[in-house]
Fold each of these.
Amino acid sequence: MNESKIADEQSSEGGAPPLSFDQCWELLAAANVGRLALVVDDHPEIFPVNYVLYDRNIVFRTDAGRKLWGAMASRPGAFEIDGYDAQATEAWSVMARGETVLMTDPQETAKVDQLGLEPWQPGAKSHYIRLKPRALTGRRFVVNRPDLWETNTNDARRALFE
């Protein structure tokens, strides 16, 4: 993956500074749940998945079904994570785009298992899927201070003020 190509694709929407290539990987490494976007039956679907990073790839497990079928359809996929730091009043988002590939090498899947990739839901989840990023982008931005009288009580921004 060409780091300069990735940096060129990043935009600073609304003045939000783009994250560097390394910052994107650090945030991906620190999290373990994200959203996988695939085209299934000619329309987009989004699946929450727990994952690990293996050899600069995002790897998750799944059982037979729509997610596996979509991942094996030789179409590009996207993967996204985001977060909010209440103390810093900053939010961030990272997105990877690339091809999804079924992992079939038992030595590779054993290495992935050693990284702690276990299913969160009941079931075998015996299929390992790798998203090979061709583009990796991210941004970080300062979150507006909430209007304490008007903002929903479950809004994460209220945490510092209550």
Note: Residues 3-161 form a domain with the Pnp Oxidase; Chain A fold (CATH 2.30.110.10).
Amino acid sequence: MSEPTAAAPTEPVEPAEGSERSAPRLRVVCASANPDKAREIAAVLGGVVELLPRPADVPDVAEDAGTLEGNARLKAAALAAATGLPAVADDTGLEVDVLGGRPGVYSARFAGEHATYADNVAKLLAELHGVAPERRTARFRTVALVRWPDGREVMAEGIVAGHIADARRGDRGFGYDPVFVPDGGDGRTFAEMADADKHAISHRGRAFRALSARLSAMG
């Protein structure tokens, strides 16, 4: 899932406070120009790699692969080719059971090609209007991938199950965070959680922790 367009970061992406800061072993370009996503990626990978910001002059990549894995690969491959360095990318989809798995790979443009976070949340709540709480089950799925210029890849997936709240709650996070209540939590939406609490159980946190472990195992 691509995120609404945001300005490309101009400074190195720093890991979040309290994240591991061991000596980086690999310089990796972040394929996302979205600062929200870049911060979440840096919070997990910052202790394993030196995460470099996406160059401002690299054009956007058309995410038309039809799968999360395919879109992550398209973005990472484009940045690796443009920079000559390994690149990391992810794609995320929200799968709502009563909607047959929608919006899925189209999550970022659920309400239209240039939809904002608020537009997408509003459309989701409208489509679920009147649906009983026990039928509002959903899951977030993230595929995270590092791609080298020579075509080598390391990939991982993270999934968190939960349900869709009947109204927006919280003002943190981004995307569908104000309406997604993860299983195994305390009833808060992701948007009501501190960053560390969210990262501990989120789809993106799980995907990038698995990716970090695989990169570390490469030595």
Note: Residues 68-83 form the longest helix (16 residues).
Amino acid sequence: MLVFTLGIKAVGKSHVIRELNKPLQNAIREISYGDVMLEIAKEKEGISDREQIAALPPEIQVRIREEASKRIRALADKEKLVFLNTHGFIYTIPHHAYLPGSPDSVSDVLKPDFVFLVEASPKAISERREKDLKAGRKREMNSRKEIEEALFCERIAALHVGMRYACNVKFFDNSLSVEKNAGELQRLAELFKSLKA
């Protein structure tokens, strides 16, 4: 089963997946679309980090994404529960516009079974990005309005993928700490356990 795990940068997708994996006895295999794209970008474009991908011309980004989708589908075919950590839209630096991160040409190769959208408040996202920057991780800082716009775009992408593949879409608010979200995370784990069975 391939679970599209969507959400904007610093919303906490990887953290949520790690927390879900605990009650699922590490049944989830997380694949980062960005990591697979970076592998390909290194091979084809001499790129050294993920942030540089957003500065490439859109047609090259699309080509890299399409090749990444083939590699990911091949990996997903070997596993029972794969969470694809990705974005519905990517903010492109050269054009200051949104490029679909999961266009139909990519999704048609991946054929997701479930869409899991991780969201958080703009305040929580800003704080996480700031923390990442202080820790030395490359992160762009956006205004509250820009974060709200990106969250809106991500929700549209999640609903579109769900409609196109007639699969369930689950929204998860990751604004709170793991401790405060424990009950909801447990319910989610039970949901994914039932889907995996």
Note: The radius of gyration is 16 Å.
Amino acid sequence: MSEKILGKEFDKLIESLSKLPSIGEKTASRLALYLMKNPPDLTLQIAKSMVEARKKVKICHICNNFIFNKSCICSDKSRNKKLLCIVENVFDLISIEQGGHYNGQYHVLQGLLSASKGVSPKDLNIEKLISKIKKTNYDEIIFATDPTSDGEFTAQFIFGEIKNYCKSISRIAIGMPIGSEVDYIDKNTLAKSFIDRKRM
């Protein structure tokens, strides 16, 4: 419908924006309209930033974290190499770091297992994580995936694969509302969740 009024280019922009997480067609339409009514410089600045970031981003071969022209957090010698925290994405890692109650290593899944969305263990390269755990004698492994159905399913699946390779495997406490996401929780609540974590 909007193609007849505004043209196929505008429709294509809405379609592209709606592919972003948590962005439906209505929000994508509002964003597209905002970009169209503001000076072209803003759109060019956003596009340039996206392209530059995408060109420079690398994935750490050890922990799966995003890195930009610098060493990864996992190479910091001051961190505890015997602790491993498993998170869904980089934003969760940042939120945990801001809480200031964890000083170990991370593994970033870059997603969650989901039958409804067709995300399988192969899609998240979980074999790489399992292989790393088998080779490393961790004192504790902590799951910090979201307390959603996909987050719980992912944690339980990985737990089943690694439970014989680490004596202490825990899950951050649900001091967070059920169905919430790690990167939206305030740092004090998240820190308390780490302190009160429970063994699996």
Note: The CA atoms of residues 57 and 163 lie 33 Å apart.
